[in-house]
Amino acid sequence: MADDSSSSKVSLKLLIDSKTKKVLFAEANKEFVDFLFYILSLPVGTVIRLLSKNSMVGSLGNLYDSIENLNDMYMQPNQSKDSVLNPNTVNYGANVALLPPNDVVPKARKFHKCPSHNTYVTDNPIAVCPSCNNKMSTEVAYVKGSNSVKETVETGGFVKGVVTYMVMDDLEVKPMSTISSITLLNKFNVKEVGGLEEKVVSLEMKEGLLLLKASLQCKNVLTTAAGAIFFLHHSSSEELNIRLLVIGEFAMVVPAHLTAEAVNELREGIDLLLGRWSALQMAIQNEWGGRDTRQKAQQLALDIYHWLIRPAEALYVDDLENLLDDFMLSLNTEIDDGSIEEISENLMIIHEECLKVILAQSKD
Ligand SMILES: [Zn+2]
């Protein structure tokens, strides 16, 4: 038998800004784009089942729960709770990589036809035949067609395989071309190509589920996934020991053992420091970095957070100073009052205090 886990691996080439650890875009092949397109074809009930109702944002998880708990007697005789909870996936017969194979066979719905006419079929037990007005009482069996047609890698899925696709951090997808990538580097204001790193990552089902979850919750899906892969490769256990923390439109990956309190403490510490940094606050009030200066400052807080939760041996205060310096320059603000050094120093102190918490917890 074929090994499912190896056949569902998909590789993705990420272009990462090595300073902010943000993914600028990814070069993706057909398999990854098929996966993304497939997400859109999933019924909401299937998404909830895949992600488990407890981890759903919003209220649909409760709705799912309610339907599960509802007594069958409330359902119409031609409907079943199962058809809502395990909806048939319109997937063109293809099992797309990165998600569990579509092996949930919904409880067979019963179909009936007229005893004398073969032209009509119904799933309503009280329907009458349009030709003779008799009850359609003869049960017929439903045949799933996909097993008869063998798909090849090239003809299956949604998109053609000859093209490389470009996938942005927020999942905008388009065919790749050299011209567009140069335009992009300009758009991202990348001055030195040396500040970029290319990383080929291999995705499996656990990353696929994380991508699905992130795509519902944030605008930085690839960065989030890259963060998850980073954690996975630095974690000794096979388990996905991380969770998504969503702040506004952006998500970040945090170690699962990091308590919400510790995360909040670090976040609050960063916000407090940035809030007291008069140069930054002036830049925000006067919109020196454009109308979205406040949004940029929020992103800076996230970038600092990301930077601080890197492995401790990769943290140098100089790098942090550069990060802050570059950020202020991007707001057209040059700082030489020593405040960058002071803020960086304080951030390192906050980090150290938070690290104690992490270390104490990981020893348990
Ligand atoms: Zn009939």
TrEMBL record:
Belongs to the TSR2 family. The keyword Cytoplasm does not apply. Keywords: rRNA processing. It comes from the Eukaryota. It comes from Lactuca virosa. This is DUF674 domain-containing protein. GO terms for biological process: rRNA processing. InterPro entries: DUF674, Pre-rRNA_process_TSR2. The keyword Transmembrane helix does not apply.
